[in-house]
UniProtKB/TrEMBL annotation:
The chain crosses the membrane at residues 38-58, 79-105, 147-170, 182-205, 211-231, 243-260. It comes from Nocardiopsis changdeensis. This is DUF5058 family protein. It comes from the Bacteria. The lineage of its organism: Bacteria, Bacillati, Actinomycetota, Actinomycetes, Streptosporangiales. InterPro entries: DUF5058.
Length: 262
């Protein structure tokens, strides 16, 4: 079964291309004046600095804990390489969506919101609801610098509440997981994978009925992913498994672009 991640990434691009409006010229000039202020750039750079430090700490912790769980240095090195290669495709999709949003929110806001969260549909929905509360349309009539500030605050609060919910609920779920593991360890081995597949499957299924382009993009990504995995097994090419996700995402993005411009 092909993982649905490339499907979600590619169809997110097609959805963003269809739903993200472009601001009027006069509004765009006013928004550009406030969306690129030094304060916002400093905040964006601060967020990325925290992400880089966090990444370094995680990699160092994995290198220290590896021998205790039976992982050699070569296995850790392979895990780092597989993670880096697998991130290329999804990261490319996020970058393309971020470029589409630059005119709407400006570079610092896009770097922080899309670069950190990676969900254009969630961020645009939060900004659209905020703009609607003052009678404005996102990127349309009434989209002034003040409305941009309101939308940016709404996006930030949305992401903050998501992090707060994660902070509160994670310890509770961890406690429940330990109790379930004590009763039936086999269930805990299946539940995380099933939850992940279910979540991405639901995201994919909701994209399919939107248009023929969405369906074609989903089927293309699934076919490429399945083909790469079959070839990797037949040829015993481990590197192809690492690159399969990237190939599937890039191919699906190309199909979505060609279908939109045809």
């Amino acid at each position: 079964m092909a993982p649905p991640v490339p499907t979600v990434a590619a169809t997110a691009l097609t959805s963003a291309a269809e739903t993200v409006p472009a601001p009027a010229a006069a509004a765009a000039d006013g928004i550009a004046a406030v969306s690129g202020t030094p304060v916002l750039w400093l905040c964006a750079l601060g967020v990325f600095a925290v992400i880089f430090v966090q990444t370094f700490i995680y990699m160092r912790a994995a290198r220290v804990a590896g021998p205790d769980v039976g992982m050699s240095r070569d296995e850790l090195r392979n895990a780092y390489r597989a993670g880096a290669v697998a991130s290329i495709g999804p990261s490319l999709a996020v970058v393309l969506v971020a470029v589409a949003l630059l005119a709407l929110f400006g570079a610092p806001a896009v770097l922080v919101r899309i670069g950190l969260i990676g969900s254009a549909s969630t961020e645009v929905a939060s900004a659209g609801v905020a703009a609607g509360t003052v009678g404005a349309t996102l990127g349309g009539d009434g989209y002034t610098p003040s409305v941009f500030a309101l939308a940016f605050v709404a996006m930030s609060l949305s992401g903050g509440m998501w992090m707060l919910a994660t902070l509160v609920l994670t310890p509770l779920l961890k406690r429940g997981g330990k109790k379930l593991d004590a009763v039936n360890p086999a269930v805990m081995a299946v539940v995380p994978a099933a939850a992940l597949l279910g979540a991405f499957a639901m995201l994919t299924v909701t994209e399919l009925p939107k248009s023929g382009i969405h369906a074609a993009t989903a089927l293309t990504s699934a076919a490429v992913m399945a083909g790469c995995l079959v070839l990797a097994r037949a040829l015993k090419a481990a590197w192809l498994k690492e690159w399969a996700l990237g190939f599937a995402v890039i191919t699906a993005l190309a199909v979505a672009y060609l279908a939109h411009t045809a």
